[in-house]
């Protein structure tokens, strides 16, 4: 399909990007700061925090795929995906706000409250994530336009990341809870318009008898989805840089507020790169782009470690370039999932977009939780002490290793995965056209 044959309006694309921005602000704050909040403010132990993050994934293992199945089966009066996003607009910011309240009381009460609010947040986030990605597949039947919508979404994610750079500075003035409240309000405002502007144009005939067993059969039958998710999970589990950055600023640099400088400098190149994604995909294809960026990310991670951080300018320059190449494969992940949906529909005759994107949500949250858990375990291994005035030398070196070296292992996994992932843009376009002929769609 031609680039010029756009089916969505400018307002739709803006509101879709806006929802992504709000949703990613809500995702990035706990991803970057929740472990630090639990350890340094609430006062939870390293062990209890690690167990909390792991046990929450047991709930996710059940919650995410079932949510995807429910969305796939339900055909609500006002749309298949938009009604879920309307609900999420109101309850997702609230669930984040509740999670960052430090209640007064004994330690056990604090721990129970952390469990309850974390699990509720996980469930509510699932309600927003799968329908949001799935919505792009029914807003347009234009492959280029679909990739463009997701590229805008990833740009919004990059913007969300840079907004988190000033969180510590805001927190220093108003405290944890009210700083989170400001971000929740901003998220609500930018998410609000989508429910009124977006339109579901493409209607696919989905399977009507999706079960939990079928979910896992679908994953293992859709070999490219399974293959890609393994690589994606490898990157997500070792994506420790953002989580450890606040510890690095506080302990290694001796100034928590330095996080604002670090995050601002390293995220700006990502924002500049994100709009170029459709052009880069057209030039190289998603697979080659992932391979090239993964190789460069590995090399720059090693360079970063040996260059150290004594010279702040050199540190920031290397970090900015490194993170740009680290983020590009992550900005592509929704596009890979959408391609695998077309492959699965072509292979089985069943279109389960919400199922696939719910599995993607599960992998994202599983990877994020395991990355947080990995950070906590490594911090304990290197001798980190909660609320200590000064960390021992081994802990400082451990924080630097987590920041610089650990992420490169995930990109090694992705390189291995890309060697056996065979879908390309031309093949996906052919399958998409065949699926539309076979299942039927209308505008």
How can the largest sheet be summarized? none
Please, how many domains? 1
Global outline: globular
CA radius of gyration: 21 Å
Residue stretches low in confidence (pLDDT < 50, at least 5 long) are: none
Strand content: under 5%
Distance between the termini: 15 Å
Mean pLDDT: 85
- What is the strand tally? 0
CATH topology: Growth Hormone, Chain: A
Structural class: mainly alpha
Q: Encode the helix/strand succession as letters.
A: HHHHHHHHHHHHHHHHHHHH
CATH architecture: Up-down Bundle
Helix tally equals 20
Give the helix level as a range of percent: over 70%
Q: Can you characterise this structure?
A:
There is one protein chain. By secondary structure, the chain is mainly α. It has a single domain (10-200, 209-439), classed as Up-down Bundle (Growth Hormone, Chain: A), CATH 1.20.1250.20. It contains 20 helices and no strands. The chain has helices at 10-42, 46-73, 82-99, 107-139, 143-163, 167-174, 176-191, 194-197, 212-221, 223-237, 241-252, 258-273, 277-284, 286-307, 312-331, 333-348, 353-381, 393-404, 408-418, 425-439. Helix 6 packs across helix 7 (176-191) and helix 14 (286-307) runs antiparallel to helix 19. The longest helix is centred in the N-terminal third of the chain and has 33 residues, at 10-42. The mean pLDDT is 85.
Q: What would the keywords be for this entry?
A:
single chain, 443 residues, mainly alpha, Growth Hormone, Chain: A, 78% helix
